[in-house]
Amino acid sequence: MTNFKTSVNNTDHFEISNENIQNLDVVPTKANTFHILKNNQSFNAEIIEKDFNNKTYAVKVNNTVYNVAIADYLDQLIKDMGFEVGASKHVNDIKAPMPGLILDISVSQGQEVKENDTLLILEAMKMENVLTSPRDGVIKTISVAKGDAVDKNQLLIEFE
User: Fold this and answer.
1) What is the tens place of the pLDDT at every residue in 14-42?
2) What is the pTM of this model?
3) SS3 76
4) Name one Pfam family in it (predicted).
5) Which of 15, 49, 70, 103 has its CA 20 to 30 A from that of 77?
């Protein structure tokens, strides 16, 4: 049996099993909108925001918005081991994950970037690999140029 730990508005915490989920009387009414019957009470629910990476959702139930975070077994195990996803990231440089050719550089020195912004495109084994920013930050240095051949673990970009 799989259990999910949920947090609602960071104050109420619940454990939900697959059995609890299977016993819900839920009918989709349109995209991201549902009608729910629970203990002979009727609820209208709408998912108004979703962040699949962080497993967080904003759900409007009968015109009240709730922020819901869901953790499955693997998320709980990772947290218990001290390797939480989303823990502060202290990545200060980007190195080539494999040998290849720099096809494009999307940033410049001194530019402010957000997490997941495209930094550069590395061609390796006839495939284009988009390297994205691991965190918000400012580009300190760019050690390569478009058209450069790079080796595995070669420094590409440094953050301030």
Assistant:
1) 888 888 888 889 999 998 999 999 888 99
2) 0.47
3) helix
4) Biotin_lipoyl
5) 49
Kindly report, residue by residue over 105-133, the tens digit of the pLDDT: 999 999 999 988 999 999 998 899 999 99
Q: Please calculate the CA angle 53-79-88 and round it to the nearest 5 degrees.
A: 65
What are 108's strand-pairing partners? none
Helices (H) and strands (E) in the chain, counts: 2, 15
Contact 16, 7 (CB under 8 A): no
Q: Which residue has the tokens 């962080």?
A: 54
Q: Where are the extended beta strands (E) located within 72-111? A: 93-95, 100-105
User: d(Cα 84, Cα 73) in Å, to the nearest integer?
Assistant: 13
Q: Which residue has the tokens 């020195």?
A: 109
Nearest to 36 by CA among 20, 56, 15: 20
How many residues make up the chain in this entry?
160
Q: At 86, phi and psi to the nearest 5? A: 85, 0
Q: CA gyration radius for the chain?
A: 22
| Token duo for residue 120 | 């550069």
- Locate 123 and state its tokens: 């061609």
